Amino acid sequence: MGPPAQERARDSLGSLVLQLHTLGGVASRAELTERLGCGRSAMGYLLGELRSRGLVSIDPAGGRTSSADGGRPSHSVLVADDAPTVVAAQLGVDSVTVARVGLGGKVHARVERSLRTRDTTDALDTLSELITELTAPKVLGVGLAVPSPVRRTDGYAAAALHLGWRGVPLRELLLERLPLPLALGNDANLAAMAEYRHGAGKGATQLLYLMTGHVGLGGAVVSEGRLFLGARGYAMEPGHLTVDPAGAPCPCGSTGCLEVEADHRGLLRAAGRTDHALHDVPEAVEEVFKEAVAGDPRCGAALDQAARHLGNGLASLINLADADRIVLGGTLGRLYSLRSRLVDERVTGRSFLNDGGEIPVLPGALPDSVLLGAAELALQPLLDDPKRVLDGLAR
Ligand SMILES: [Zn+2]
């Protein structure tokens, strides 16, 4: 059996930028040489290309000693202080968050604003305003994460159910306001990509990712470093897997979807606490967790029920995806840390592809995974073809 199939860049320069990026923006020259599997002189050439375009700087004294370099101290390669950055934006159900992010996932600046209404124009005006505020010289483009399936060809948001938006040509509307390259993606898909490159999904060949946000439950598969997007870009929507046909109605039109049974509202409903405004939902869920840990039986039972539904949903998804790692983001990770036995019983008992329980289940490692994922989307052209992007910026 060969090594696990992983993300590959188009050429050596792209590979070098990708490695430096996933190593957090700083690495020893020896480690990069090792990872690229190239010779010392080839590495010298590649670093020269990136340095002359202002992407990296070299610290002769900063690297570790490496056996690959004959025991000599290795130079340290860093993303340059004034290297290009991107603007990452997250459209939430009652807020927008925007950050300027550099290679290595470094967040340079971050702003957040509440949305007063669910009006599309109001949300897009707020988004454009914050994006403009954070745009600086050498910004390559904007990545936007939205709580909706997104069509890959044109950034059409098919169903932002929790915003009450059905079918919005989001990219087109934003481009009327913003004169910058703009890419859109589904929030859970992008969070999965961030966990794959920087967090708990690192090194997985087939990563199955599920997360809960403010409300709702999303997910994705990252297969050999690429998101599984489906024919139009709408895959995956594991939140709408039926786990209880007799369950609660879901905004998608079905009943008993994993999303309504195991997201924040599912937890609150099971705990008998349904009278919360949308804005207060995360805080109310926090109370349910605290009281469950303190021994409250109804809150404890609510966690049990959500964990069973999560386990049943995961078992079906494992059989579909043949994952070698499962990462649970947001509250799902916390639910798993408190109720792993209930989840594990189902992901082994109901999934014959995991009957030995060998597939690791981990909580997400990144608190800002959606926003970092939006940055990944905007950085992708640089990772695909650094020379073209950097030379284009210089013109
Ligand atoms: Zn549904």
Please, what is the average pLDDT? 93
| Shape-level CATH architecture of the largest domain | 2-Layer Sandwich
- The number of distinct β-strands equals 15
- Give the name of the CATH superfamily of the largest domain: ATPase, nucleotide binding domain
Number of H- or I-type helical stretches:
13
Q: Approximately how much beta-strand content do the residues carry? A: 15-25%
- Give, in spatial order, the strands making up the sheet with the most strands: 6-5-4-7-10
Low-confidence stretches: none
Task: Provide the gyration radius in Å.
Answer: 22 Å
* Global morphology: globular
- The CATH topology assignment of the largest domain is Nucleotidyltransferase, domain 5
Structural class: alpha/beta
The run of helices and strands is HEHHEEEEEHEEEHEHEEEHHHHEHEHH
Helix content: 40-55%
Sheet with most strands: 5 strands, mixed
State the domain count. 3
User: Ligands in the structure?
Assistant: zinc ion
Q: What is the CATH class of the largest domain? A: Alpha Beta
Q: Whole-Å distance between the termini?
A: 47 Å
General description of the model:
By secondary structure, the protein is an alpha/beta fold. The protein has three domains: 12-79, Winged helix-like DNA-binding domain superfamily/Winged helix DNA-binding domain (Arc Repressor Mutant, subunit A, Orthogonal Bundle), CATH 1.10.10; 85-190 and 370-394, ATPase, nucleotide binding domain (Nucleotidyltransferase, domain 5, 2-Layer Sandwich); 204-365, 2-Layer Sandwich (Nucleotidyltransferase, domain 5). Helices cover 40% and strands 20% of the residues. It has 13 helices and 15 strands. The strands form four sheets. It has a five-stranded mixed sheet, with helices on both faces. Strand 4 (85-91) and strand 5 form a beta hairpin. Helix 10 (297-321) crosses helix 11 and helix 12 (369-384) packs across helix 13. The protein binds zinc ion. Zinc ion binds at residues 240, 250, 252, 254, 257, 259.
